[in-house]
Design brief:
Two copies of one chain form a homodimer. Chain A has two domains: about 80 residues, Glutaredoxin (3-Layer(aba) Sandwich); about 120 residues, Glutathione S-transferase Yfyf (Class Pi), Chain A, domain 2, CATH 1.20.1050. Chain A is of the alpha+beta class and about 200 residues long. Helices cover about 50% and strands about 5% of the residues of chain A. Chain A has a four-stranded mixed β-sheet with strand order 2-1-3-4. Chain A starts with a strand and ends in a 7-residue tail after the last helix. In chain A, helix 1 packs parallel to helix 3 and helix 4 packs antiparallel against helix 5. In chain A, helix 1 links the parallel strand 1 and strand 2. Chains A and B meet through helix 3, helix 4 and helix 5 of A and helix 3, helix 4 and helix 5 of B.
Chain lengths: ~200, ~200
């Protein structure tokens, strides 16, 4: 088993934190995304979307998509549970993880993709769309601050994959100057707590 | 238990097809999305993102996000399995479902959101971004056609949630004039088969 990884991007960090929380060690192979290694053969022959990370299983299967990789490890190493326990809790954790993806991580990533030098010539950038996403991301952090007024973690009273997604999204905002505002005390309290876990440096 | 539903949008259709495949009946409440009922109180008090569908559970909990709702029913009504069986298969179905979401359904929905009259004044539309998404969606249908050359369904030899997501995405393309091209024989064969299942009319 091998994890195709990159220290630069937010999605591989999600999987590294998930593995660290479960105390699982997987050998990694660094993919040179700055050099577009992930956009060329042989990488795209096995992962046509070109994303990182990918988990190569022992039978040679390539498993892409961060949350699909996390789900594999949740099934094979259930403790500690990071994706909920029982039907209702699992569904609610999935809801919160998806909200953290679509409303926080993806919005913040779209600001970067559509405005940063790194993506020039790699994708058709639309700066106006990036700025619209910046507006959404900023509002969503205000909302998340209020949500965190009444509970310890994003999906309830226990650390889950939804916290990992939110952390990786918010930290990736720095490069686009999206930050937790000084008056967002609940979000700041949560961010300090999750950043202080040993897994956060994975 | 109640499902907040809308006949207009692609995401509620995903859940209706999923339920039909499992032969589960849930009472529905129609949300007037044309009248923006889902963007106002009391709806947004319980689902701040304003999306449809939402499943109201018997304890009053509101469960949003289509795939989270599907996961709830997959756990409570495992037969027939639509999200895979066993760790590796579940992860691969998740990978394919996520690819069908981010590369097909969301790309096609972004064309609609950023160019259609319906969203004028509702969101900041960026037509140039919509057109970029049209280009991506068109390429992704070419890719999916080739993927389907070697297998019956999107995630393998059995119908899964990934087929439901792809079907709802592709059918939603009609309103933006995104269609299966005449030379995409594999995609057309698959589309005819999945559209012919009784669940497709749910």
């Amino acid at each position: 088993m091998k994890l195709y990884d990159s220290p630069m991007a937010p999605n591989p960090r999600r999987v590294r934190i998930f593995l660290a929380e479960k105390d699982i060690e997987v050998p990694t192979v660094e993919v040179d995304i700055a050099g577009a290694e992930n956009r060329k053969s042989p990488y795209v022959d096995r992962n046509p979307m070109g994303g990182v990370p990918v988990l190569e299983l022992d039978d040679g299967t390539w498993l892409a998509e961060s949350v699909a990789i996390c789900r594999y490890f949740e099934e094979t190493h259930p403790d500690p549970p990071l994706m909920g326990e029982g039907a209702q809790d699992r569904a609610l954790v999935e809801m919160w993880n998806r909200r953290m993806e679509s409303e926080v991580l993806i919005m913040i990533a779209q600001v970067f993709r559509n405005s940063h030098e790194f993506f020039k010539g790699r994708i058709p950038q639309v700066p106006e769309y990036g700025e619209a996403c910046r507006g959404v991301a900023t509002k969503r952090l205000e909302w998340l601050d209020q949500e965190l007024a009444s509970r310890e973690f994003v999906a309830g009273d226990r650390f889950t994959i939804a916290d990992i997604t939110a952390l990786c999204g918010i930290d990736f905002g720095r490069v686009s100057k999206i930050r937790i505002a000084p008056d967002q005390k609940h979000l700041a309290r949560w961010h300090e707590a999750v950043s202080g876990r040993p897994s956060a440096t994975a």
